[in-house]
Amino acid sequence: MLPKFPMSRQCPYHPPAGYAALKKEGPLARVRLYDGRTAWAVTGYAETRQLLVDPRLSSDRSRPDFPVLVPRMAAAKLVALVGMDPPEHDVQRRMLIPSFTVKRVNSLRPAIRRIVVERIEALLDGGRREADLVPEFALPVPSTVICELLGVPYGDHEFFEEQTRRMLMATSTADEAAAAGGALNRYFDELIETKLAEPGEGLLDELIVDRLGPGELTRLELASIAMFLLVAGHETTANMIGLSVLTLLEHPEQLARLRADERVAAGAVEELLRFLSVADELQRVAAADIEIGGQVIRAGDAVYLPNAAANRAPEVFPEPDTLDVGRGTRHHLAFGYGIHQCIGQNLARAELEIALYELAVRLPGLRLAEPVEQLGTKPGGSVQGILRLPVVW
Predict the structure, then answer these.
(1) Is the CB of residue 289 less than 8 Å from the CB of residue 323?
(2) What domains are defined for the chain?
(3) DSSP-assigned beta bridge partners for residue 391
């Protein structure tokens, strides 16, 4: 019998134990999805990189043969950027790239640091000595940043965070995910209407003037792009912040290296991205036959590329199961690879570097208040992370 996919983690900062068995089958292995469909799981690093740039693998979620990993995905057939193939994908990506360059993100670093410091000061307010860092730090930092970048009122954050959870949790039904996606689309359509009457500052306002006005985007397309940027801009980074803090607390010698020298932060973030791989299970469908890794992927086959497996490849990352903030590599696949490589990666790096360093320095006595086993791990089929992070200092 084929192993079931997706697989859940037993430890929140290590890949599912079942990935080891898949690797023994070779760089590609057959798995079975929840609906009985057979799929390929690609665990080899070289094969993953090769397939992520192969135009014969489609990301088009409108295709009737596009795979569904968990029930909620049946309601998410169309997603801006990540759910498109060229040329539509390339047109939208070119519109957004100027807002996420290294130069643009570096100009945002003072604002990101201000947001992070404000959140830490709120933790310390009144002499507090304990907190749950998921709702009080990991989630509000990226939510605030992406709201300021887009020009979305932060006062609406509870609404869009709840809808995001309903869309992305593996346990959500297709109807629940569809309802949440519809609510977010309506929200952005109404926000666009408001901004047309009263322009503000932010990426959404720029797109309204530069793209919607000349007719390069429809309102529906713009709302879809805004929803994608908002959801992707806070969900993955929030999970990365929470899980990174936990991982560093579980590896105190690595945390000490970060605390001692801010110059370590950039390398520490790259290593944590590799080590944690929170955006696992990249998905595609074959548009044509592909021979690779001693196997033949047939047209119409579902293909999954769990980068948590590729990022633990010993031939690329010596002692891959060891966290080493001085490893100094950026060859990991945590942001994907090829034309669909995460457009917000520079922003995510900046947020992580600042958040982790400031937290380490300003809360030197930080430690877990409960065992790791009690924190709750998100299931396979969703962005990986923890449900709670109670700490004391």
Answers:
(1) no
(2) 80-278+319-392 (1.10.630.10)
(3) 131, 368
CB 367 within 8 A of CB 249: yes
> How far out from the chain centre does Cα 336 lie?
10
The answer to whether the peptide bond before residue 87 is cis (omega within 30 degrees of 0) is yes
Which residue matches tokens 């696949």?
333
Tokens of 267: 């390398």
Q: What is the mean pLDDT of the chain?
A: 94
Q: Please give the Cα distance from 317 to 306 (Å, whole number).
A: 16
Q: 91-150 pLDDT, tens per residue?
A: 999 999 999 999 999 999 999 999 999 999 999 998 899 999 999 999 999 999 999 999
The two three-digit tokens of residue 257, written as one number? 């290296």
Q: How many beta carbons lie within 10 A of that of residue 278, not counting itself?
A: 25
pTM above 0.85, yes or no: yes
Cβ density class 284-307: b for 16+ within 10 Å, e for less: bbbbeebebbebebeeebbbbbbb
Return the amino acid letter for 336: G
> Amino acid identity, residue 301?
D
**Contact of 244 with 13, CB cutoff 8 Å:** no
Tell me which amino acid residue 220 is. Answer: L
Query: How many Cβ atoms are within 10 Å of 144's Cβ, its own excluded?
Result: 20
